[in-house]
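pinned: reference chain
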Amino acid sequence: MTSESDINDVTRRGASSESANAAAADGALLGAEFGRRVIALVGMMGSGKTSIGKRLAARLGLPFVDSDAEIETAAGMTITEIFDRHGEAYFREGERRVIARLLGEGPCVLATGGGAFMDARTRDAIAEAGISVWLRADTATLMQRIARRNNRPLLRTADPAAQVARLLALREPVYARADLIVDSSERPHEEVVGALIASLLGHLRKHPSAGASP
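pinned: its structure tokens
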């Protein structure tokens, strides 16, 4: 596992035209070198997987896919409705199947649901098809972002902050198994994307086989 701190983050030096051009070149290079691998973003709800993932996909010239959106399309109902009608276990099984399908459909940036990486079969499938990146955010940042939406089934409790803390304690040790870790707390999304690209390039240089087709 490689942490973001292990790699020089070129995006921190400012937004000069020279660094912007270099970042664009790195994005194009990474998109070309990554072959048919999938970049799977994992982490808590509110960590920025969708918004950051869309920006990353645009920089790399790859499609962006959101597993939650794909699940809703396949089921013909929202995730909240799936939870209400069938329960979490039913949802998780459908989530696993949808992600397995998406991983086999070619290179993309894939944003996964907050609980998806907890499934060992999904972790194995991601490891086989691509590279996993944990977008790590602190509790304060997560709560600030989550408060903007009310469609989180697991947070329909009297104390959402306590629920987030409980989920973090349960999930963070598993998220830490991801290939890369990039912090997304209190940072502009474009800065996070730059850090992602730098981390992915560093990973490819250390592990050239990571860019090979699965």
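why pinned: The mean pLDDT is 83. The two ends are 19 Å apart (CA to CA).
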